[in-house]
Amino acid sequence: MIFALLALLTATTRLEVIPSQTSEVPAHDWRYFEIDLQQRPALVEAEFAVESGSQRIRMALLRRDELQRLREESPAGVLELTEAARAGSLRHQVPEPGDYAIVLDNRSEDRPATVRFNVWLDFAEPAGPGAEQLSPGRRLGVVLLSCAWFFGVAIFSVRRLCRAVTR
């Protein structure tokens, strides 16, 4: 009974689809790794770190059918893209099942790179819309309305207290 309870508590919705793997990415070239996501939508999380060579690698998540455009040097429809750096990570909620790919891009450098990367899928249901901030105009409006309400209540209270004291 206790074992079953512990198994339920430690159950995870996160699956490592590409465990820590090293890849050689030639200069002025890119490499891709397939992600078959046929079950249901998921959050794709990936990270990379350059171990040697080039210092500016980019990682991208795209649909597998966009790889042909990338091969032809045409603009490809990228779902998520990191900045060119020595290390980075990306997170993207994939809206529908399908075939996807993670691309390690070294096209802007003259040296090959050895890159270590991992990819996970998280099948947990999204928690809903993320936290958002109000626009500066709305924030100012909320502050002004709050101050007006506070000072209105304060003035009303002082007037009532002064009337009660003078009687």
- Continuous helix count: 3
Question: N- to C-terminal separation?
Answer: 74 Å
Strand line-up in the sheet with most strands: 1-8-3-6
What's the level 1 CATH class of the domain at 11-122? Answer: Mainly Beta
Shape: elongated
What share of residues is helical? 25-40%
- Residue fraction in strands: 35-45%
Mean pLDDT across the residues is 83
What is the number of strand segments? 8
Quote the CATH topology of the domain at 11-122: Jelly Rolls
User: Which structural class should the secondary elements be placed in?
Assistant: alpha+beta
Task: Report the CATH architecture of the domain at 11-122.
Answer: Sandwich
Poorly predicted tracts of residues: 3-10
Rg from alpha-carbon coordinates: 27 Å
- Provide the succession of SSEs: HEEEEHEEEEH
